Request: fold
Amino acid sequence: MVAKDYPFYLTVKRANCTVDVQTTSNAPAKETEEPSNKRVKPLSRVTSLVNLIPPVKATPLKRFGQTLQRSISFRSDSRPDLFAPRPWGRNAPPPITKRRDSKLWSETFDVRVNQLLTSKEIKRQEVIFELSQGEQDLIEDLKLAKKAYHDPMLKLNIMTEQELNQIFGTLDSLIPLHEDLLSRLREARKPDGSTEQVGHILVGWLPCLNAYDSYCSNQVAAKALLDYKKQDHRVQDFLQRCIESPFSRKLDLWNFLDIPRSRLVKYPLLLREILRNTANDHPDQQHLEEAINIIQGIVGEINIKTGESECQYYKERLIYVEESQRDSLIDSSRVLCCHGELRNNRGVKFQSRSL
Reply:
């Protein structure tokens, strides 16, 4: 390649190694002109090329470092290269995971009220406020499961109505129950944010949780059907898109469907904590003790019925090679002791369950 093929060429003098810049004319070069036989000193030996570079306003180093740091902080798989943006459009920013802020009673209401209360009473108010906030979060999650999962899958024919009824069970019927408790707790709250008594509210409301019998008993069959339907690429694709959306908080559908059960077993813990921070002469003391007995009885009964439902689910799926293998003890069993996998001497898996 000849130097004069460029818009300008370099003539290097050996005597003082200076660089002369000569601009070629706009006239076309002669085709018959032969290339020069003069030896050109390599550019790597030129002392300076500063005069060849047009002046450019430099970006301050600190600002450039900050810009570079911000660009590195983003995930490379979800953001285009900083110096080579894609010509066909801008990439959407990565979804932001929605996280619930942890709210405390002392941070929500006037701090001057806290100065009039003992540390034990403040702790009591914090737990009561946590009970109320938990109800609000539960209601939002149940409504989200219906609006973002059940209704779209039904409308798009991703699952049949019968399959969705099996998976979601009686979830719709739980929402009004918790809305009722949330309304009662808010009515009992004073203008300054404190709550004097909650025991009588819980004693009157907790029997409504017997509605959880059918919902929790259905969870074994619901989980099995949901896992089976995930083999369908349409179902899997829809659920994956939901997980990647901000509204899901990176939770799977089953995480939302299991929230009511998790909430149910948390009530005894919350009530015992409220009672622990309640003075012995407080009018709420007796009602809280009664409420704890009620919720423990409800949770225990639901656990028994859920276990029986699980046992029945597996009994219905037992396969006998011969009819003589049936046992009346298995047919009358109500408890599933354990279950797992067995392998024969060839490594083939067998489902094993003990009733």
Q: What stands out?
A: Residues 1-33, 43-54, 56-99 have pLDDT under 50 and may be disordered. The first strand starts at residue 8 and ends at 12. The two ends are 86 Å apart (CA to CA).
